[in-house]
From TrEMBL:
Keyword Aminoacyl-tRNA synthetase attributed: no
Keyword presence, GTP-binding: yes
InterPro entries membership: P-loop_NTPase, Small_GTP-bd, Small_GTPase, Small_GTPase_Rab
Protein's name in the database: Rab8B, RAB family GTPase
Gene (UniProt): Rab8B
Amino acid sequence: MGKKAKLQIWDTAGQERFRNITSAYYRGSMGIMLVYDVTDVKSFRNVGNWMRQIELNAAPDVNVTLVGNKSDVAEAERVVSFEQGQRLAAEHGDHVRFFETSARSNVNVTEAFEGLATDVITRLQTQDEASLARVAPLKLGQEESTEKSDCC
């Protein structure tokens, strides 16, 4: 990868009391990570509400990573499948990446953060290159024409 990114993380734990103040943070965000618990269907359903908040308040091209946490639990404890998580991410567009992680076992946690950071860096580089392409090139070292006109 070779690039460094400084991440500022706001963990609201999905709490309603943060819903109003988080709208201000969406505006300046370049990347957003939403995490739900694969053993809690309510947390999974809340992802839709948070996605709507992102669509209303964040930049249209913000990178989003959806994460299903507690992937290390026994299958009997799981109420949200890997496929359901993938499907939900896909429903919200190409800019939404999906991971399953286990914070307890440290599985895919680094990959989820690095994936989001890489997506943001790639998008910003692409935008910078597009901006540069729109600027007319400045030609240095060309001498001004010294031809005289026949006028006056």
